[in-house]
Design a protein that fits this description.
TIM Barrel; elongated; 36% helix; 2 domains; two-stranded antiparallel sheet; alpha/beta; binds S-adenosylmethionine; single chain; 8 helices
């Protein structure tokens, strides 16, 4: 029978953050994510789902270590969740010291994944009032977690996440070697999601697959033969009323969308 409770629960316990990363959706133009902490009574109402959950992840866009009730949330969740389940979150590690590392593991946290830009890079342009997000912050956080893990004798898992870009990809082999020496349990690498034009130069690949590029070229040739240009089609798409030639461009744009849907081609037009 299908369970009525989720197996994996993601709770964004805060949207506040102590960094302002240029690649982050929170700081993209037009973004309006309010800065809030999840109140404890909201968390308490969610506890009913925890006994059936296999994993609980306590972050979204914000920095979980900023939440004043983080340790209490972990303790409450651990008391409701079954054995061999996992509680974890992702952090930039700035606020992590030996004392907090010890308290997190004691409260019942099973894994913490630290965001890292590379061995030298601060490529994501993550600034905080206290300085930039450097590798030394992550190295200190890993060492605090290792010490707490050894002291408590726990099976706690330390992870790293690196968003790969043109500027930091060459640092990945060195990071893997370092992580292995430090006893890091896992590394997640992801690609950059483009929330802003200002990060386009960091992207490792064209977000449009070859089929999408070919489709666009085919329709752009049609537009060209009519003396038109498809380059502005997204701007035109957002316009309330256009000229006759603009509506021809929009017809061609609908054609691209229709064909892409039929052929299951993913389009990633940027406005
Ligand atoms: C948004 S942060 C939130 C959790 C926590 N504050 C942290 O720093 O890990 C979660 C992860 O998303 C990554 N991230 C931020 N912007 C991204 C983007 N545009 N594309 C892909 N990953 C991104 C960050 O590098 C980080 O590893």
């Amino acid at each position: 029978m299908k369970s009525t409770h989720p197996k994996k629960i993601y709770l964004e316990i805060t949207t506040r953050c102590n960094l302002q990363c240029r690649m982050c959706v929170k700081y993209a133009a037009g973004s309006c994510i309010p800065e809030r902490d999840m109140p404890i009574d909201v968390f308490n109402q969610l506890l009913v789902s925890f006994p059936k959950a296999e994993s609980l992840i306590l972050n979204g866009i914000g920095e979980p270590l900023l939440h004043p009730h983080l340790f209490e949330f972990i303790r409450l969740a651990r008391s409701r969740m079954a054995e061999n389940t996992s509680i974890g979150f992702q952090s930039n590690g700035i606020l992590l010291d030996e004392h907090k590392a010890f308290n997190l593991i004691e409260a019942g946290l099973d894994t913490l994944c630290l965001s890292v830009d590379g061995l030298q890079s601060t490529v994501a342009d993550c600034d905080s009032p206290g300085g930039e997000h450097s590798f030394s912050i992550v190295a200190k956080a890993v060492s605090s977690l290792n010490l707490a893990k050894r002291t408590i004798g726990s099976n706690f898992k330390i992870g790293l996440e690196m968003v790969l870009t043109r500027e930091n990809i060459h640092e990945l082999p060195g990071l893997v070697a370092w992580a292995s020496d430090e006893g890091v349990d896992y590394i997640i690498t992801t690609h950059l999601i483009l929330y802003s034009k200002t990060t386009e130069d960091l992207n490792l690949f064209n977000p449009n697959p070859l089929g999408a590029v070919q489709l666009f070229q085919k329709y752009n040739q049609k537009a060209f033969s009519l003396g038109l240009n498809m380059g502005d089609c997204i701007t035109l798409y957002r316009k309330y009323a256009g000229t006759r030639s603009e509506s021809v461009v929009l017809d061609l744009f609908s054609g691209i969308q229709k064909e892409a849907k039929e052929e299951d081609i993913r389009l990633n037009f940027q406005g």
